[in-house]
Design goal:
Length: 285
């Protein structure tokens, strides 16, 4: 009977785990609906600001703004890596870290700003990487102002002339079951490839440089905000999918163990019946 007790205990344990993973899936699904709406609302605003700044960059006739041109083309790269604070979300964190490692192997002269506990816990163990700063607890940002300190740090570091470019690596939300890993340059602004912008004339109020100054700062803030929303939505989608798979696997394992348990129980009952029948026959003889 010890074997049956072990099987029953294991089945009970897996049932409890299944309840936990199912609850986590439902929580992630509820959060996903909320963050998904925030992403869809933020994308047009961020894309429009990006487009406006790139148009101004193309048509700028005066001294270029520091965010529009490389200040020091020979400088180092500043790499912002965005992960989650928590795990249990499939390959969400590991895919970013794996890509970052591959990129850093090819471009070792990079300094890091880490957003998310998983990124910091991983890269702080390797002394090869120079971590400028790290941030945690930002997965549920409410508005642009929540990221003001990160924006100010990134702009200040780039404006110092030490860095040639600022890149960010993050997971972009595609759907509940799919994320796109993005490696994107945010500073300086990437110019348009076409010459279509030059065909349009603009009137600036108050003046061109004032608009570029304001849009440049807002562009960095809004893009960081959108990136955090994208990452949070992708995280919730990945967690919902991972917990759904875990719940399904737990149900399958319970079914298999229940079948083994029933077979073992039936075997033991059959053995007991044979022993009782054999004893009764021996007594009657």
């Amino acid at each position: 009977m010890a074997n049956l007790r072990d099987l029953k205990s294991r089945i009970t344990s897996i049932k409890n785990t299944k309840q936990i993973t199912n609850a986590m899936k439902m929580v992630a699904a509820a959060k996903l609906r909320k963050t998904q709406d925030a992403v869809y609302n933020a994308r047009p605003y961020a894309e429009h600001i990006d487009k406006m700044l790139r148009i101004l960059q193309k048509k700028n006739n005066y001294t270029p703004h520091p965010l529009l041109i490389p200040i020091n083309p020979d400088g180092k790269e500043l790499l912002v890596i965005v992960t989650a604070d928590r795990g249990l979300c499939g390959s969400f964190n590991s895919s970013i870290i794996r890509f970052a490692h591959s990129y850093l192997n090819d471009n070792p002269d990079c300094d890091l700003i880490l957003i998310g506990r998983k990124a910091y816990d991983h890269f702080r163990k390797d002394k090869r990487y120079n971590i400028i700063s790290h941030y945690v607890g930002l997965s549920d940002v409410k508005n642009v102002n929540d990221l003001r300190h990160i924006r100010e740090e990134i702009i200040s570091l780039y404006s110092s002339g030490k860095y040639s470019k600022v890149y960010v690596i993050y997971n972009e939300f595609k759907s509940a079951i799919q994320q796109n890993l993005i490696h994107k340059q945010i500073i300086p602004v990437v110019p348009f490839d076409s010459d279509e912008v030059s065909k349009v004339d603009y009137i600036y109020e108050p003046d061109e440089m004032s608009i570029i100054e304001e849009l440049g700062t807002r562009y960095v803030s809004v893009d960081l905000w959108r990136i955090m929303l994208e990452s949070n939505a992708a995280e919730q989608g990945a967690r919902m999918t991972a917990m759904d798979n875990a719940t399904t696997n737990a149900a399958d394992l319970i079914d298999n163990l229940s079948l083994v348990y029933n077979r073992e129980r039936q075997s033991q009952i059959t053995t007991q019946i044979i022993e009782v029948a054999s004893g009764a026959e021996a007594i009657s003889n």
